[in-house]
Amino acid sequence: MISTSLMDEFRSIVGNEWFLDTPEDLATYSYDGFLPEFRPDAVIVPGKTDEISKIMGVANRERVNIIPRGAGTNISGTSVARKGGVIMAFHRMNKILEIDPENMCAVVQPGVVNADLQKEVARYGLMYPPDPASMYVSTIGGNVALNAGGPRGVKYGATKDYLLGLKVVLPSGDLIKTGGKTFKNVSGYDLTRLMCGSEGTLGIFTEITVRLVPLPPAKATLQAIYSDLDDAAKTVSAIIGSGIVPTTLELIDRVVLDVIRDYGGAEFSRKAEALLLIEVDGEEVSVLTQGERIEKFCREKGAIEVQRATSPDEAEKLWQARRSAFGAVASVRPSCVVEDATVPVKRLPDIIRKILELSDKYRVQIGILAHAGDGNLHPIFMTDLRDKEEMARIDKAMEEMYEAAISMGGTLSGEHGIGIAKDRFMPMEFTGTAIELMRRIKRVFDPNNILNPGSFL
Q1: Can you give the pLDDT at residue 323?
Q2: Could you list the residue range(s) of the whole structural domain that residue 333 is in?
Q3: Do 241 and 137 share a domain, yes or no?
Q4: pTM
Q5: What is the pLDDT of residues 362-376, one digit of tens each?
Q6: 292-295 long-range contacts, Cβ below 8 Å, gap at least 24?
Q7: Whole-number Å distance between alpha carbons of 329 and 331
Q8: Element (H, E) at 242
């Protein structure tokens, strides 16, 4: 517990309004998208860099844990007080500080919502490509902390590919600057990349400089329905292997499609075992040609139905199923555990077959969503966290799934991060030496282990 005098010291930095410690406030910040509850001792909401520096100075002196938190949409448990302490929330620091069209970059505070940045830069004919599914809620600071990706990752990559520079407050309270507005920068160690994906364990971002790209002039959106899930998975490999780089290539299996249908999210043929949602962008002539080639691939690989949007409204209608998926699945059971095993694209059919096998073996309902174009799967375990026996079976299924993914040359996480959701699986992917090296890096930045302790390290 934090002493009354220390709470008063924190209040003096941000003002009484922005130091929260009522039971209602603590309950609100006890959860993130991962769902298990960890109640903090308090919540502090800074409004500027100087306040963060002072807060960290006090926290470091008194050995108080600080847990950075954006919108709390992550599903890996990276923004909860697993070992107690103070949640630091960033909804006051939500300004777009600069959009620089000539240098094709933007400077933002950590609390800026991803979709708000996308909307603003579009006015300049530019695009910020990283588009996590939670983009209408999640913040850029959280996206950087977890190196977030999204459907456009097939063509455009993840947050790290658009991160140019940071201003960071260290656990000591000291401020450092990494990178800048230049696209090329090889001066010293790449601290910008090190911070990206660090899950709130190394420092606190106060300003973020991101790279922008020209908004593509045209796009084509296609939806293909399959009566065989394996055919859909093989289509993904065929498209990527052909040299076409789609903007997005999403896969939804029958389990999720049935839920979406019952939820009223969209209608599909009862024969549908899988759906592919495919989008390409670029110059109009190129987009037209690629759309025709993709449609041909889909039909050759067994699609029973292919639709190509002829207008933005039709494209939005095709996206309806994908966008309603998580809401639909959440209506089936009290809880859903969403994972993100990732494998090389060629192994996509293999890992999907493995997940179906595990669903039968452990008697658990698993739906499959996937950013299939980059091999990033989101198996959705539909469950009830209060059912301890079922959760034990799910844990075994997850362990086997990740063992399979690693054996196929894959990884524990393509975009969600490790957090406390998958920390126990780290030895599958990393040697003891590699894990110890990460811990040493953590100790260099945070020798007192006050910043997000109890996370993946």
Answers
A1: 83
A2: 218-407
A3: no
A4: 0.94
A5: 999 999 999 999 999
A6: 293/242, 293/244, 294/222, 294/239, 294/244, 294/246, 295/222, 295/224
A7: 5
A8: none
